[in-house]
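Technical appendix A lists one of the benchmark inputs used to test multi-chain prediction within the project. The record comprises two sequence entries:
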Amino acid sequence: MNATAALQFFFSGLTNGAVYAFVALGIAVTFASSGVVNFAQGQFVMIGGVVAVILNTAGLPVLAAMVGGVLAAMIVGYVMGRVFILYMLPSGEFAVILVTLALSITIEAFAVVVLGPDPLTMPSLFDLDPIMVGAASITIDSVVILGAIVVTLGIFSIFLAKTRWGRAMRATSVDRTVASSLGINVGGVITSAFVLSGFFGSLAGVLLTSQISTGPQVGFAMTLKGITAAALGGMASPVGAVLGGLLLGLVEAAATGYISSVYQNVISFSLLLFVLWLRPQGLLTIQARQL
Amino acid sequence: VTMARDSTYGAGRIAVIVMVIMLPLLLRGNLHFLNLANMAGIYFIVCIGLSLIFGIGGQLSLAHGIFYGIGAYTSAILTTTTGLPVTAGIVAAGLVCGVLAFILARPLLRLRTVYLALATLAFGEIVITLIREQSWLTGGSTGIINLPSPKVLNFTFDDQFKYYYLIWAVALAVAWIFSNLTRSRLGLGLRALADSEIGAASCGIDIASYKSRMFTLGAVFAGVAGALYVHYIGFISPDSFTVQFSLLIVMILAIGGRDTLLGAFIGAVFVTLAPIFLADLEKYSTLVFGLLFLASVMFLPNGIAGSLTCLVTRVSRAGGAKP
């Protein structure tokens, strides 16, 4: 493979990686506050994208449609956290995982019933030509997604480390009962984590939709990518989740470029199994968290 | 008291066996219902296998559908290329799944909850891609057609009526193994480790070994069921063994009741009959399954079977009978 093709695969890997990083970041947020790995996380990507397309088709400008998509996913995130997760938390981790799995299946089935299974597209926010690097090109949307993940990660890390609310989140993740006894509104923290993860997921969804396409059935695949990325980098750490996402995107691009696109999943899942086998706490987590 | 309970238990067993034997005689004219009864039997075997892992052992494996597929492909390939008799193919399906599961069990089941779910799912995706792509062996996405019917001595199980007895003989044998196993040391140990691995380990239970035996046996059941299925329908293609199938089994087991035979049975009957009730609502069927799954996880943690048992106990207590 020549340098241009390699660079092209690198760009596409980074773009996909940034999308996975958003999903993984959403997973890390809810995991860090409630200890829940949200199997419905990918559905936020779907909801964001699909709602944006619907609004755009209804005549709203692209930017407004995107905002609408993100808001819709945040509302779903609120309901998910407030109604389902808080209700199930006392029943234990296993029950919560099953509920998120059930929610994922239900949300997807509902979207398919309403919209049919076909993929949907939307015009790009930016009417600009791709940026050329040598003979390889990268679209403005890709650059925006990459920029967005870096900025989001930065703001979120500062939020976690410096603000009262961020500290409350971290305290909740260590021990809900103790955090509650110290006056932290644990229910509020967990609900807000789900709203935030809805925000991250749908941001990826709306940015992705103008880049490739979306559809009612992208959610579960996105969940898998996101959990894979989060597990690669370290479930509890936002930086780990984002780097895991980028790594996953690049590995997939390399597998597609050097081997074959049909073996893309085989390569990335083999990597995952290998990491889970050797370092179940993730590549970047220093403090071993009991699995 | 125990003797009385054992004798009602024995009577119950005999009643079930008689019912299973009689059913096709009642349905003889109706191939449609006979076909449903056969599919229910296959699902029942698959569900019992997962019940052991997911219900008794409390481990969320999403590889169950792929073991069903590996069993199916093992038998389909062996019987069409080497001319192995189908009955031997079905046994080979169980063996291959068992050996594979045994090798994978220790590294996989070290992981818990979501990591286990993810790793088993990853394993399934890898295998299904290999099945799709290695078409010299598996026929690729078109699969293999004209699979032979099983034969014992000179008797060929070549129609729904005869096949019914083959499926349900295996199903009852698997149910018998399961029911003995849940009351054995292994079954009790698995229930204990499902509650608390640390607690179980402190009582001297070898967690890794118990999980490994559970996973292996569950995979054997799935593999045998897969082989029975493909020789019943006569062809094989990878679409039947995707992640969706693993998820479906988890769902119907959660709806039926994940740690009892009755639960596995209700789940199997439910999934077989669902297309009849949902025939007019074809496109709503996944939504209905999803909502029922959600409702049962939230409100019926022991599934329909658990709630039924609970209800019967309450009614009989209210009636003054000693529990």
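The mean pLDDT of chain B is 89. Chain B has 14 helices and two strands. Comparable benchmark entries are summarised in Table A2.
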